Amino acid sequence: MSISPIAAPVGPTSLTSAAPTRAPQQTMDSTVFMSLLVTQLKNQDPSSPMDTNAMISQTTQLSMMEKLTQLATDSASGLSVQQRSEAAALLGRSVTYLTAGGASGSGTVGSVSYSGSVPSLSVGGASIPLTAITGITGA
């Protein structure tokens, strides 16, 4: 009597060897918070429901987190607008600046570029970021 060998299984052989179906989320946002709150409410013990004060406290914390996030976004937008305005105000003015190597330079601002996250000024043919300006020497 001959015995035929069993072929090796194809694909993952256990639950842990398969790749995860989704990447774990590393930040807590309002979607995660609401999902946790709804899950908590669905699975609570009917004989001992969630304290309403605790639920109101959690909802208040969510609201505060959303407002702080919006405040941070608005502050970043305001800084960007202020930098653009300041860069435009330097057109035609003489400035001093530090290069990436640490050397100082000076010249007249000929143009402004808003292509990066920080406006850059064209001074004597060199592109100088607004943050590298150390002084204004001309009126």
From TrEMBL:
Pfam families: FlgD. It comes from Sinomonas terricola. InterPro entries: FlgD (IPR005648). Residues 1-25 are annotated as: Disordered. This is Flagellar hook capping FlgD N-terminal domain-containing protein. Keywords: Bacterial flagellum biogenesis, Cell projection, Cilium, Flagellum. Residues 13-25 have a biased composition (Polar residues). Belongs to the FlgD family.
